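Batch job 17 of 40 flagged for manual review because the log was empty.
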Amino acid sequence: MRWIFVWLVLVLVAQPAAADMAADELVKIFAETCLMRFPDETSIQQYAGGNRLAIMPDEQLHHLLGTDPGEGWLQNTARGQYLLTIEMPPYHTCAIRKGDTQQPDFLPVFSQTLAAWAAKQTGTSLRETPSMTLNIDGLPSKEYLWELHRSPNEQPEELMAIVSNIPGGVTEVRLVRAIGNR
């Protein structure tokens, strides 16, 4: 009976740590690609090649980007598969997507990462806007949005976290950096 109690305590203690690690990994991959390398497509291609990411099949890429031009890769880790997409202008975006049965509590670490990154950008200001509940591709979703203002005359960059509930008990988290007209 005592070993059941010990096992239960270990499981309960390990779960938050695993969830924290999943959130950290998601945000780390986004920062390494979309914050540190984007909009330099060559740098992202080098990252993909250096980390031996698989090129995303055309059918999957077109499912994600529609008719918009772009590139995509699959990044596999011990926590599962991440989808990295670069959408080319006119909608210039970098996105990381990850689906899972448990949604990691990524917002605190994502907010902190964005704030630290924005603070290093010369002459910028980061502003968080109220979250919205919306329907994306027929899926109930929650969007969290930050705007990075570089100058009064430029349209701000958008940094987003989109959480969609996919039928079958899967939650997709999509982290996005969008530059230019949307």
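Reviewer: the log was empty due to a logging misconfiguration, but the result itself is present. The mean pLDDT is 88. Unflagging and moving on to job 18.
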